[in-house]
Amino acid sequence: MNEKPTSAWTRRDFLKRGGSSLAAFGAIPLAARAGAESGADGNVGREETARGTVFLDADGSGVADGQRGIPGVLVSNGTDIVETDGDGRYELPVRGDAVLHVIKPRGHRTRLDSTNLPRFHYIHRPAGSPDGDFIYKGVPPTGPLPERIDFPLYPQDEPDSFDMILTADPQCYDLRQLQWYAVETTHAFRRHGAKFGIALGDIVGDHLDLYEPYNAINARCGFPWYNVIGNHDLNFKATEDRYSGETFTRVFGPTTFAFQYARVHFIILNNVYWEGFDGLRGNGWPRNMQYHGKIRPDQLDYVRNYLRHVPADDRVVVCSHIPMVNPVDAGDKHRTPEFGELLRLLSGHRHTMSFAGHTHINVCELLGADAGYDPPGGALHTHYHLTATCGSWYRGPFDQYGVPFAPGRDGSPRGYAVVRFEGGESCRVSVKPLTGRPDGGTQMSVTLPPMVERAELAATKVGVNVFTGSTRTRVSMRVDDEGDWTELERASGQDPAYVALRKHSEEHTGAGRGTLPPPVVTDHLWEAALPVGIAPGWHTLTVRARGASGERWQERRTFVVAESADDLERYNQGVLRPRNV
What we know:
Elements (H helix, E strand, L loop, with lengths): L7 H4 L12 E2 L2 E5 L14 E10 L17 E3 L4 E3 L5 E7 L2 E6 L4 E2 L1 E2 L5 E2 L1 E4 L21 E10 L5 E7 L7 H16 L6 E3 L11 H9 L5 E3 L18 H7 L4 E5 L2 E5 L3 E3 L16 E3 L3 H11 L7 E5 L19 H8 L4 E6 L6 E5 L13 E5 L29 E8 L3 E8 L10 E4 L3 E3 L7 E6 L7 E6 L6 E2 L1 E5 L2 H11 L15 E8 L7 E10 L5 E11 L2 H9 L8
Parallel strand pairs: 3-12, 13-14, 14-15, 17-20, 20-21, 21-23, 27-34
Antiparallel strand pairs: 1-11, 2-12, 3-6, 4-5, 4-7, 7-11, 8-12, 9-10, 13-24, 16-17, 18-19, 22-23, 24-25, 26-28, 28-32, 29-30, 29-33, 31-32, 33-34
Helix pairs in contact: 2-3, 5-6
């Protein structure tokens, strides 16, 4: 957007600082080796070998000496992946700049810092980031490759069934918006008993000095957070793609990595390709739209190398910022052309899915052999775009808590998702609104006039927006718990509730960050006409939906049937009681 960078939080004691800016987190470098060569920019030099141990840190010292090494743990340089030997030792080639990291195995956790960020990596930037002209600093010089880079692990129980939190696009541009995020999310997230959270990019909105208070807010949720880089998390003055995530790397670590929890393997991919600095806007802020979706060849190598170690019946979950496929927004800024190749790599596994953010709406795509995914048994790959935590960029009128409603342009509520895994086979995704019902239980919205003339019943449509609906979703309804259920037909169009709220926001400009953006056409809508023959008076409509993985949801709406147009007018004026009361 057009806001200038703010560092007001550093001038005021808004939140206690958390984390650190050191190059090494979780890894323990020892005895820096003399004579290591690298180019002037720290990226070009002779190949070296990184060595170390993955060990069980039984005494909490963080030092490997005398502690038991853990065999069979995967360690990577960002492309190559090796397995530790019987004593927990590994060796990896290092070719200039790299981020070495341990891939968390089942039954263990990595170090956590004071803000609950996992510290599982060592950043090797001999000459530091080329950030002399950056707005926000990257990684300071790390010097020669250490003689040893050791990774401590700690035991933890990991049951087959567990919940995790997924957010997309918190995208706060200033402290006011961070406060909105804090007020709504910290207590909401805690109530689910989640084991960890993943934020699907656009962690902040351009102003990377907000990372620190954002992390301090998330620390209050009480569980670890993994973070995906988004297009609003970049160093916009970077001249080329390889340097565009230097501040993100300093704060969070590698932009492509993997970890395991129970029988689920998570692969985090940076699919935001930066095309390079392209000058300043009129207000002096760098242009920031010169990016597109892309999976780089070394990332495909990383996925290929990792999948060799993943059992065929375990679940694989890929997380990125930009969607892999996108039926709503055209152009490579909003999709990832290499997805077919990724799906072919995933085809050796029957239980796979992927999540992305970026679009600020909900989309659920079921993909098979025609898209490149052809596993044994013909299973489908599920790809979700998740609605944004900031919704439609915190725009529009305020709710009762002083936060903009800002639903997604598809009518989905501003919110997050809880994902329930049960072993490697079963997975269910539930949308949790941050506005509306306090329990966050609703998974769909129902549009129905509150009063209907009896003669117009057959022409009155019931509209249902199932936020994570797909081609396999089924929706039905009935009135007053009587008679047969009527199946609703899937439709494509604009969500009428969002259209109405946008009209209201146009009449109240200045709320939030301005008027709500235009609606988009979505296909997770269902509709049917009300049944004829409903008697005048109060009635209850029950709508139920069944998701692709067997999820079941239900909503109820109360409405009035008027005998005549005159009665309907008198109802609206509040002077006529229903005939069946």
